[in-house]
Amino acid sequence: MKYNFMIIFVAVFIVSSMPNVMAEYRLLCLDRSETVRFSLCNSHIPDRSCDSDFGCQFCTNMISEGVYCPTSVNVCNSLDLGCSYLANRTVDTQPPILSIISPISMHNYNSRSILFDLLLNELGDINYLDNINGRGRWSRVCSNCVEYTRRRSFNEGNNSITFSASDGLGNTRYVNLSFFIDSKKPRIIKTTPSNGFTDGTFFVTFKEDNPALLILHYGNPLVGYRNIELDLGLCARNLGRTYCNTGANLIDYDGQEIEYWFNLTDISSFSHASRRLGVDVDVTYPDIVDLDFEVISGFVNFNISIEEENLDSVDYMDNSELRPRWRTLCSRLNDGRCIARKSFSDGNHNVNIQVRDDAGNSVTENINFVV
Question: What is the CA radius of gyration of the chain?
Answer without folding.
Answer: 41
